[in-house]
Amino acid sequence: MGKQIFITGIGTDVGKTVASAIVVEALQADYFKPVQAGDLEFSDTDRVQSWISNTESKFYPNAYALHTPMSPHAAAAIDKVTVSTEKIKLPETTKDLVIEGAGGILVPLNDTETILDIIKPSYKVIVVSRHYLGSINHSLLTIKALQEKGCEVSILFNGEEHPTTEEIIVKMTGAKVIGRINEETQITKEVIKHYAERLKENLVSL
C-alpha cells in the first residue's frame, strides 16, 4: 500500500489542482477528489487527467459531485443531498494516492463536519500557500490545525517569492518546504512535467 497524500490550500484558488497534478505526475500516483462542487462538465479530476503525461495513474470518481460552485454544505443543500463523511471511502489501490480537498480545511461539508474531518493523521498533507494580504494568518491557522490533528505537514509555495512571508510561516510551524510553483501564464502537460521532475525527490521522501 502506498502513501495517502492530501492536498489542501490556505483558501480557494491558491493552486491545489495544479499542485495535485504535479504530485500525481511525479509519483505516478492515483487521484481522488472526494467532493467536487461545480464545474462538473470539466471537473478538477478532468483537469488533472488532462495535464499529466504518465499512463500509470488512475482517476477515481468523486464521492460527491455537486452542481453549484459553492461551499459543499450549501451546494449539497441545493442538490437536496447531505454530504456524509461516512460515505467518503478511499479507493483501494496499492499505489500512492493523491487526495484533493475542496477549498480550505474548515470548509463545511454539512452542519457538523468540515474537510478536516476527512483528513486522517496518517495522511501526508501538503498545504499550498500563496502570498496575499492575510496569507500568513491563513497559512499558520491551516498548518497548526493539521499539526494538532497529528498530521505530518509540508508546504508547497505557489506564485512569486515573498521571503518575509515564507520565512515566518516556516519558522513558526517547522513544516518542511517541498518547493515552489512559479507564476505560470498557462498550465500545460509540459509545465506539469517540468515541476514533477524538479520536485520529485522531495515528494518521494514524504
What report would you give on this structure?
The chain is of the alpha/beta class. It has a single domain (4-204), classed as Rossmann fold (3-Layer(aba) Sandwich), CATH 3.40.50.300. Helices cover 33% and strands 20% of the residues. It has six helices and nine strands. It has helices at 16-27, 44-51, 72-78, 135-148, 163-173, 189-204; strands at residues 4-9, 30-32, 35-37, 59-60, 64-66, 97-100, 124-130, 152-158, 176-181. Strands 4-2-6-1-7-8-9 form a seven-stranded parallel β-sheet, with helices on both faces. The chain has a two-stranded parallel sheet with strand order 3-5. Strand 8, helix 5 (163-173) and strand 9 form a beta-alpha-beta unit. Helix 1 packs across helix 6 and helix 4 packs parallel to helix 5. The longest helix is centred in the C-terminal third of the chain and has 16 residues, at 189-204. It is globular, with a radius of gyration of 16 Å. 40% of the residues are buried. The model has no long low-confidence stretch (mean pLDDT 97).
